[in-house]
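Sanity check

After download, print the first record. It should look like this:
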Amino acid sequence: MPVKILLVETHAGVESLICETTHLLQWCEVVSLNESGKAADLLQRAKFDGVILDAQMPAPDGFELTQMIRKASLNKAVPVVMLTEDEDIEIMRKGFKSGVTFFMTKPASRERVYGLFNAIRGAMTRERRRHARLPLRTKVTCCWGEHQENRFTGESLTIGESGMAFHPSGGLEVGKEITLMFALPEPLPDTPRNRRSIFTESKGSREDRFRAIVRYRNPQEVVGVEFLSIPPVYQRGIQAFISGEED
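Expected structure tokens:
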């Protein structure tokens, strides 16, 4: 699955060059907009793995748009590349303060675009993987309260590195911090077996506690949570499940 990038550029020549170059790379797809206001709205509704934007645009400019990205629940952690006219130190300082990850100065060339995308590929791939979700059906117990006295049991639907979805909602509201308990089938990683067996084979199971926060609840009573803490061995297990990697 290619990484998804939002390009916000008002200069038609630069936009065309970046789109043509990335089309040849095959590992990424670009959604291009030339109005920063429309981009700001889209970033609230759609998930991207990276954003490339021009520093100088009609309001919101690149710095303001970057600040909006860092406050957007879906895209707050994505790598942001800012296109600038020169290597002015103060502009770069302002960009970093706003949340910019990388800079590329104009004039752009095919070679420079290739170099940029080679540099940011790893960061964007990690962002895509962090938000990837695969189906997983397992019992999930949710607890909250001073002594974890409130609880209900549901069933998971999907899981990823950063969180999971399950139903029913049990009345949970967005922003609620909870403790989750669910079983990950054995064996866990660091064994000389196909890591995919962590979730697909039921040769015993192990249940642990995970702190999480509710990020959404839809009308169908499906709840999406973000993990706040998860033991490293389980994190590696989820990563292996998502990637399908073998030892």
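If your output differs, re-run the checksum step. Summary of this record's structure: The chain is about 35% helix and 30% strand.
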